[in-house]
Amino acid sequence: MKNVQVFGLKENEIYPSLELPINYLSFYDLDKVVGFMSCKETQDKEEFERILFENGIDTSKKYYIEKCLHRPRTSNIPYDGFRVVAKERTDLEWRLSGAASLEAKLFTDDKSLMDELLSLDGRYCKHDQFEDDREVSSRLGVIL
């Protein structure tokens, strides 16, 4: 497979465990954001990170670009292309924006409280129930 670089980041780079909550942003969706097409053509990383931040990515943490078959948020049709995998923002502005995930809305530095709140939803297990990061990543669908 040919190794492609987008914004100086290697495609399909195996990435270490990301902090929760994890967010996925498809280039299919980002192509609809004003300014994304031009920053993609010019490889303007600063503008790219501004767009990611506005769309819920915590750009102060590591993020990765992978090429895979996935379903974009704005389409139910599978798309074989790039997507950004990163930690979702958990600042108050993002949590109140209406676009934040449940995990981001319930985010707190108190892991036991966050585990308890997430367990009430019925879709989540406590962090300490997993043996290692690889088991967590496989349950979350993240490649380690």
Which descriptors would you attach to this protein?
144 residues; alpha+beta; two-stranded antiparallel ribbon; disordered N terminus; disordered C terminus
Folded structure, characterized:
With 144 residues, the chain is α+β, with helices and mostly antiparallel strands. The protein has a domain of 86 residues. Helix content is 33%, strand content 18%. The protein has a three-stranded antiparallel beta sheet with strand order 3-5-4. The chain has a two-stranded antiparallel sheet with strand order 1-2. A hairpin with an 8-residue loop joins β4 and β5. The longest helix is centred in the C-terminal third of the chain and has 11 residues. It is globular and about 45 Å long.
Distance between the termini: 19 Å
Largest sheet: 3 strands, antiparallel
Structural class: alpha+beta
How many individual β-strands?
Answer: 5
Strand line-up across the major sheet: 3-5-4
